[in-house]
Amino acid sequence: MSVDASSSAEWTDIRDGVRALCQRFPGEYWRKLDRERAYPTDFVRALTDAGYLGCLIPEEYGGSGLGIGAAAAILEEVHKNGGNAAACHAQMYTMGTILRHGNAAQKKAYLPDIATGRRRLQAFGVTEPTAGTDTTSIRTTAVRQGDRYVVNGQKVWTSRAEHSDLMLLLARTSPRDTVAKKTEGLSVLIVDMKDALGRGLTIRPIRTMINHATTEIFFDNLEVPAANLVGEEGKGFRYILDGMNAERILIAAECLGDARWFIAKATAYAKERVVFGRPIGQNQGIQFPIARAYAATEAAELMVKRAISLFDAGRPCGAEANLAKLTAADASWQAADMCLQTHGGFGFAEEYDIERKFRETRLYQIAPISTNLILAYIAEHVLGLPRSY
Under 8 Å CB-to-CB from 356, ≥6 apart: which residues? Predict the structure, then answer.
């Protein structure tokens, strides 16, 4: 089996289409964006115009009505071909909260525009500086006053906020000390960011080692129409969790794409790079790390496929989604380290794209959920060990 003859051959037409689209955005395009910390506007527009970002939205709302397997194929191919879908992947799955828990008016008002890209729903306001991954400890409040909620607080690591028209915001609508369970009293609001800017909403970019357009958000008496409440007040934590499995599966698919890019890059270089009169790929010290990265990636794909099949069948898949993300993120990081080592000093050169993607794929050890939290989940919910936090 060649490196490209992967078992991830499903959705051939979609994969071929995404691959052809990515050829219009070669390494030079991504390197320039990375240097300037710029948003890939043209790339996102091309994916949108091709209908890829609306693939999970039902046809009645202008989308393709496909399953998460198709979405995973799209994102994997973007990464496998040297791009990075972090700039737009939330456009695929964040809308799921509205789709599954929004009312008819909200679905009609937002989903068609999200499907066509007329409006971007890419910002997800959950994490806070003091709470981190302890979501139930968030302090941002939304107080009902007549037909509006008044929001005060702060969010951090809210990626793409400057490039999004809408944001899904998780805020506390009931004080934590007044609810029976700490997961209660949290609600989801749809925030019109263009309307809110300068009227209680402030966005501050955070410069990071990865060009992901992430920001911190400040709310100062921001008024949000009560009609923008998604589902029932106080039930927002469950709504947010409901979308986490999709996020984990799709991020896992991106990791598979990264891993395959690194493996292909390293394999090609190992064949053509001659040192001491022989290709370096003839040396087991080069061969074995590449082969191990390949094995880890193929094994991770099986877990991703398992999670996809359960999700699309509407069956519980919390453990499988977490395991898919864990194994795929580990495989991509293993492949990244191997690829950099194979190239030696050339791997640090910008023109090879390795150092860029090395930085990009490192993120998946900590986001959108850290490896340690996944391990804690498996320990408690799969193995039945005592809760550790």
Answer: 30, 31, 34, 350
Pick the CATH number of 121-234 from 2.40.110.10, 2.40.50.140, 3.40.50.300, 3.30.590.20: 2.40.110.10
Closest CA to 143 of 86, 215, 194, 200: 200
Report angle CA 221, 225, 228 to the nearest 5 degrees. 120
- At residue 90, the pLDDT reads 92
- Burial bucket for residue 349 (CB in 10 Å: 0-12, 13-18, 19+): exposed
Where does the pLDDT of residue 389 fall: very low under 50, low under 70, confident under 90, or very high at 90 and above? confident
Cis peptide before 289 (omega within 30 of 0): no
Q: Which residues are catalytic?
A: 247
Which amino acid would we find at residue 345? G
Give 5-26 pLDDT, tens digit per residue. 444 558 999 999 999 999 999 9
Domain boundaries 12-116, CATH class: mainly alpha
> How confident is the model over 172-196, as a mean pLDDT?
95
* DSSP for residue 291: H
Which two three-digit tokens encode residue 193? Answer: 């960011």
Q: Could you read off the pLDDT of 280-327 as tens digits, one per residue?
A: 999 999 999 999 999 999 999 999 999 999 999 999 999 999 999 999
Domain spans in the chain, listed from the N-terminal domain onward: 12-116, 121-234, 238-382
Q: Determine the pLDDT at residue 212.
A: 87
Q: Write down the mean pLDDT value for the chain.
A: 95
Handedness of CA 260, 262, 265, 271 (dihedral sign): negative
Q: How far is CA 208 from CA 136, 171, 205, 229, in A?
A: 26, 26, 9, 32
Q: Which CATH number fits domain 238-382: 3.90.1150.10, 2.70.98.10, 2.60.40.10, 1.20.140.10?
A: 1.20.140.10
- Tell me phi and psi for residue 86, to 5 degrees: -60, -25
Nearest to 311 by CA among 242, 382, 376: 242
